[in-house]
Design goal:
The chain has one domain (47-346): Alpha-Beta Barrel (TIM Barrel), CATH 3.20.20. By secondary structure, the protein is an alpha/beta fold. The chain has helices spanning 5-15, 22-29, 35-52, 91-104, 121-132, 148-156, 171-177, 183-195, 213-226, 252-265, 275-280, 284-289, 303-306, 322-335, and strands spanning 55-65, 108-113, 138-142, 161-163, 199-206, 230-235, 295-296, 339-340. Helix content is 42%, strand content 12%. Strands 1, 2, 3, 4, 5, 6, 7 and 8 form an eight-stranded parallel beta sheet that branches. The longest helix is centred in the first third of the chain and has 18 residues, at 35-52. The protein contains 14 helices and eight strands. α6 links the parallel β3 and β4 (161-163). The termini are far apart. α5 packs parallel to α6 and α9 (213-226) packs parallel to α10 (252-265).
Length: 358
């Protein structure tokens, strides 16, 4: 099927690097199977190569706690899930996982957990300091909404990046999916993180019940407005212990189209081929790397904890140990003719090029 005139015009506009309107983004997200999708994916891949080269950055995730105070309708870690065995990884094991990452030459460690109030800002800062002592890598923190003081403590301890997904740019849908929290508070914290000098990551899910293509366009425009250094865009996958257990998963093709459009709108941002897209489809990560993605986040948590960090069931890599996970991902990258990055993978934006901002 040949391309529609309107789609062709918007794609040409994107290829010139012109700013895309919400209507333009909606048009691209509605790319039809065949030539339209192919041309969109090819352009996104070209923009990725021009801005980031062929290196794929590995960010090793250590999921150090699966306790969470929130009751989000989409997440298996929600506090109402009484069937989940909870854990907190002892510091010694966190450090051991970081040593393993250093030995493999990883450029980034991601310290990730549910919103676990057990950890004070000082404890998180201490964890960051101790992990930074292990190797020459950047540390990304992903522990949800905290006080500005906590963020400041983490930054001073050496945290380089912070990942706080906005999940959806629709304030009503946000409140519905995340009872007891608000979209405004989320955005306030993303702005705090920017002010404190973090490289900021955010992102959204594809396929939440009640989401529209217009909402997805708003998600991408919000990521542009926030000027994020990383955007995590992945499909919603239902968990059997949540209120959304009977809903279908996000659509793979729509996820890839959203990723491709995000690459066009955010040429300098790092875009991961998410674990969720690898869970949804066995070739999901490869497909994402062909549509603009340039990051993979292998799970380096000790094997005993992996299956308990159940945001959604059957998470890719949750049944492997760290060696298997790393081996599979490096093989995948090489099969695509790409190479593993040997650096920290900081943002290519001018003020981040030489490592963390002061």
């Amino acid at each position: 099927m040949s391309m529609r005139q309107q789609f062709s015009q918007v794609l040409e506009k994107a290829s010139m690097g012109s700013e895309l309107t919400k209507e333009d983004i909606v048009t691209l997200l509605q790319a039809l199977p065949g030539e339209e999708e192919e041309q969109l994916f090819q352009l996104a891949d070209k923009v990725r190569r021009e801005n980031h080269g062929d290196a794929v950055h590995l960010r090793g995730i250590i999921e150090f706690s699966n306790y969470c105070r929130n009751d989000c309708h989409y997440c298996g870690l929600r506090r109402s899930n009484k069937d989940l065995k909870r854990y907190r990884i002892p510091m010694e094991e966190i450090i051991e996982a970081a040593r393993y990452a250093a030995a493999l030459g990883y450029g980034t460690i991601v310290l990730q957990a549910g919103e676990d109030p057990y950890y004070s800002g000082e404890q998180l800062a201490d964890m960051i300091r101790r992990v930074k002592e292990v190797g020459d890598f950047a540390v990304t923190v992903c522990v949800g909404e905290r006080s500005r003081e906590d963020y400041e403590l983490m930054r001073k301890a050496g945290a380089d990046r912070y990942l706080l997904k906005h999940e959806t740019a629709d304030p009503e849908l946000f409140a519905q999916m995340r009872p007891g929290t608000s979209f405004e508070e989320r955005i306030k914290r993303l702005n705090w993180l920017r002010e404190l000098g973090f490289q900021v990551g955010s992102g959204n899910m594809i396929g939440l019940p009640g989401q529209t293509v217009e909402t997805l366009a708003e998600d991408i425009l919000l990521l542009k407005e926030l000027d994020v250094e990383m955007a995590g865009i992945g499909p919603f996958i239902p968990h059997h212990q949540t209120p959304l257990k009977d809903c279908g998963p996000g659509d793979l093709k729509l996820t890839l189209k959203a990723l491709a459009v995000a690459r066009l709108v955010l040429p300098l941002a790092h875009l991961p081929a998410t674990t969720a897209v690898g869970t949804l489809h066995p070739e999901g990560r490869k497909l994402a790397l062909s549509c603009g993605a340039n990051v993979i986040m292998p799970n380096l948590s000790p094997a005993t904890y992996r299956q308990m960090y159940q945001i959604y069931p059957e998470k890719a890599g949750s049944k492997e140990d760290a060696d298997e996970s790393h081996e599979r991902i490096t093989t995948l990258v090489k099969e695509m003719g790409r190479q593993i990055s040997t650096g920290r993978g900081d943002s290519p934006k001018e003020h981040f090029k030489n490592g963390p901002a002061c």
